[in-house]
Amino acid sequence: MSLKLMQSVKYLTAAAAFTFCAVSAQAADVLRVGTEATYAPFEFMGDDGKEIGYDIDIIKAIGAAEGYEVEIVNMGFDALIPSLLSRQIDAVIAAMTITPERAERVAFTEPYYDSGLSVLIRKADQDKFKTIADLKGAVLCGQIGTTGAKKAEELSGGNAKSYNYESEVFNELKLGGCDGAVNDRPVNLYFLATSHAEDIVEMSERITAEQYGIAVHKNNDELLSKLNAGLKKIREDGTFAKIHEKWFKVAQ
Ligand code: ARG
Question: With DSSP H G I counted as helix, E B as strand and the rest as coil, what are the percentages for the chain, rounded to 5?
């Protein structure tokens, strides 16, 4: 074989190997999972610009148990369900509460986290807002498309403001753009514990009890059962409890 021919054979072999790898990488079942990563400690951006948090660890562990390579796709919270419906993503993990309205449009896995809403106010307003009922007429804020934003609307009597990013919700509260922030309680508590906002307090009344689920397209029974199976596996082998302890510092 001439040198030239040998070189091109070598090149072709390398190209074939490369194509094979590219194809098999795709076949290694990539699971595109949508989230909205401003919601610590469930999903937020780590220092290296990658999404981290409780939900991210949970979905990666489920993926590992079921043979998926998880690819996180970050977007606005209100874009998650539409993206699932148009099949741009395969699943959503976003501290997403299982609600009857959402369950009409998408399918949820078994619940994986017990949550609920609470309200943060400025310490200076503590005498003004003693109970949740006192919030009527106040300006309440929440994140767009969330159960918190809906509750803010209801409790304030139509005086709510909603924002794309959770950081904006907290900032508005600090700066006086709103009087109360309605969020998932663990997110409010994480904010109080990590942000040194000594002028902000949580109202002691709990508003709702909610549960999070991972959402998939309604026509994707296969994926739904795999995610449920993975969730069961990681509960049984202790991974689930470890992830809980890592992010909440307490046993589940
Ligand atoms: N649990 C609330 C809901 O489902 C808030 C979720 C917000 N999640 C997020 N990643 N920003 O509406």
Answer: 45, 20, 35
Tell me, yes or no, whether 171 and 226 share the same domain. no
Asked if residue 89 and residue 37 are part of one domain, the reply reads yes
Does one domain contain both 105 and 47?
yes
Whether residues 7 and 108 share a domain: the answer is yes
Q: Domain containing 21 — which CATH number?
A: 3.40.190.10
Q: How many domains does the chain have?
A: 2
Nearest residue (by CA) to ligand 1, atom 12, is 146
pLDDT in tens, 102-156: 999 999 999 999 999 999 999 999 999 999 999 999 999 999 999 999 999 999 9
Q: How many CB atoms lie within 10 A of CB 78?
A: 15
Cβ burial of 139 (10 Å; 0-12, 13-18, 19+) is middle
Q: Is the pLDDT of residue 20 over 90?
A: no
Residue 17 pLDDT exceeds 70: no
- Confidence tier at 24 by pLDDT (50, 70, 90): very low
Distance 248 CA to ligand 1 centre (A): 18
Beta bridge partners of 130: none
Residue 165: closest CA among 80, 48, 39: 39
For residues 80 and 129, membership in a common domain is answered with no
Q: What is the pLDDT of residue 19?
A: 46
pLDDT at 249: 84
The answer to whether residues 152 and 187 belong to one domain is: yes
Q: Which residues constitute the domain of residue 221?
A: 3-113+212-248
What's the gap in Å between 96 CA and the centre of ligand 1? 5
- The ligand 1 site (C-beta within 6 Å) comprises 35-36, 39, 43, 77, 94-97, 143, 146-148, 166, 184
Q: What is the CA(8)–ligand 1 centre distance, in A?
A: 55
